[in-house]
Design brief:
By secondary structure, the chain is α/β, with parallel strands linked by helices. It has four domains: 57 residues, no CATH class; 138 residues, Rossmann fold, CATH 3.40.50; 87 residues; 134 residues, Winged helix-like DNA-binding domain superfamily/Winged helix DNA-binding domain (Arc Repressor Mutant, subunit A). It is built from 22 helices and nine strands. A hairpin with a 7-residue loop joins strand 8 and strand 9. The longest helix has 19 residues. It starts with a strand and ends with a helix.
Length: 449
């Protein structure tokens, strides 16, 4: 069976638009023959109507995906790609979660490209960022697959009817702002037929039945530096950092938490700034890291816009807790969060529930330790953003006062214990809290408290 290759597909679509055939394309429906057969039939007719040779644009392969082409290199993450290939093969519903800009979409596309051959009816990418109305999520998927909405019938019912016999992988990208609708869609599609598989990206889990969540980590140090140098070379051809400059770049990447979006925005500044100047300007990173690609979605054009998107999706109480957590500079325990952040309108019990939500939404990191309890922390970029919001809310002084009071009390509790049997354990705890103990003392000294 002949079918259009990807380059020819774009050409035919262009011809179709030029000849006013878009309404013809959108009006066709699948007829139960599957995605491949459907596109062959449509394309044959389209070629005839557009007066383009069918044999000139066909090959022996199949239209296996609509994955968007990538114009930059994929750096690092070899282990993550291998793990996700295995995860997608073993579970029909996998969701990649992580902070904004951590590379969820790019990783999903990389994995999808590697598994195309597993699915007889292809791999299909559905971009949900433009979908503001949750009721239109199913319609967007139907549109990508070429299914026409039927008057008087829910589009989800039509969609489930037609995908039931397909062997396909759907990549649902940017689900966080329509998370409930995506969860319902996922459950319905999985129930419709055993051949449908889903790979989603979201800043929080969809919490649907059968979902396996996979948190996307930051890039490691080596990959971060490689990414910076490659992207800087695109901004400034011939860029070849010296060993000293490479050390500066490594520090930039560390301070940016290994977040790919932030690293790429910083690397773009190499066009006009030396790496050492970029490093010096990172304290004001939200003004520095702008100027993403003009074709990128707005929230990926600046670092601040990326964080704002996550913050804007929070409920009021979640925003309140995130703002207050920004006073911790070295991570924190649950006890510390309850003591420092408990104030109107939040009590200690509410803090626990909200903290769990912020972890799910990739705004708070769980940092496992060998101590008796877990520690938590914010990526520095998120902490600085939340700190600005804390100032704007007029809560900074009161929150920092509670922060200082907690750590003074902790030091007083530790003092008599240091010479006893539990002295080493207390000394280790004080070491873990060193940065916050110092911040508390500096604030008390500055305010004369």
């Amino acid at each position: 069976m002949c079918i259009l290759g990807s380059g020819a597909s774009r050409y035919i679509c262009h011809v179709a638009e030029m000849r006013g055939l878009a309404r013809v394309i959108s009006g066709w429906r699948l007829n139960g023959k599957g995605v491949r057969g459907c596109f062959s039939i449509r394309l044959c007719v389209l070629c005839q109507m557009a007066d383009v040779s069918w044999t000139a644009v066909c090959d022996d392969g199949g239209m296996r995906s609509n994955l968007p082409p990538q114009f930059t290199s994929f750096v690092g993450r070899e282990r993550e790609v291998a793990e996700l290939e295995e995860a997608v093969g073993g579970c029909r519903f996998v969701t990649l979660t992580g902070a904004g800009g951590c590379g969820k979409t790019r990783l999903a596309l990389q994995v999808a490209e590697k598994v195309v051959e597993r699915y007889a009816d292809g791999v299909w990418f559905v971009e949900l960022a433009p979908v503001a109305d949750p009721e239109r999520v199913a319609a967007m998927v139907a549109r990508v697959l070429g299914f026409r909405e039927e008057e008087g019938r829910p589009v989800l019912a039509t969609l489930c009817e037609h995908v039931g016999d397909l062997e396909t992988l759907l990549v649902l990208d940017n689900c966080e702002h329509v998370v409930g609708a995506c969860a319902r869609l996922a459950e319905a599609l999985l129930e419709a037929g055993p051949g449908t598989h889903l790979l989603a990206t979201s800043r929080e889990p969809l919490s649907g039945s059968g979902e396996a969540t996979w948190r996307v980590p930051s890039l490691d140090s080596d990959a971060s530096v490689r990414l910076f140098i490659e992207r800087a070379g695109q901004a400034r051809p011939g860029f070849a950092p010296t060993p000293d400059e490479t050390a500066v770049i490594a520090d930039i990447c560390r301070r940016l938490d290994g977040i790919p979006l932030a690293i790429e925005l910083a690397a773009a500044r190499v066009r006009i700034m030396h790496p050492s100047r970029i490093a010096a300007a990172l304290d004001d990173r939200f003004r520095l890291l702008t100027g993403g690609g003009r074709t990128a979605v707005p929230r990926q054009q600046t670092l601040e816009a990326s964080v704002w998107w996550s913050y804007d999706l929070l409920h009021n109480e979640e925003r309140t807790l995130l703002r207050r957590l920004s006073v911790f500079v070295g991570g924190f325990t649950l006890e510390a969060a309850e003591q420092v952040c408990s104030a109107d309108p939040l009590d200690a019990y509410r803090v626990l529930d909200l903290l769990a939500r912020l972890v799910d939404k990739s705004l708070v990191q769980v940092r496992r330790s060998d101590a008796e309890e877990d520690r938590y922390g914010l990526l520095e970029t998120i902490r600085l953003y939340a700190q600005q919001r804390l100032l704007e809310a007029g809560e900074a002084e009161a929150t920092r006062h509670r922060h200082a009071a907690f750590f003074v009390a902790l030091a007083e509790r530790a003092e008599p214990e240091l010479a006893g049997a539990r002295g080493p354990a207390w000394l280790a705890r004080l070491e873990r809290e060193h940065n916050d103990l110092r911040a508390a003392l500096e604030w008390l000294d500055a305010t004369g408290s």
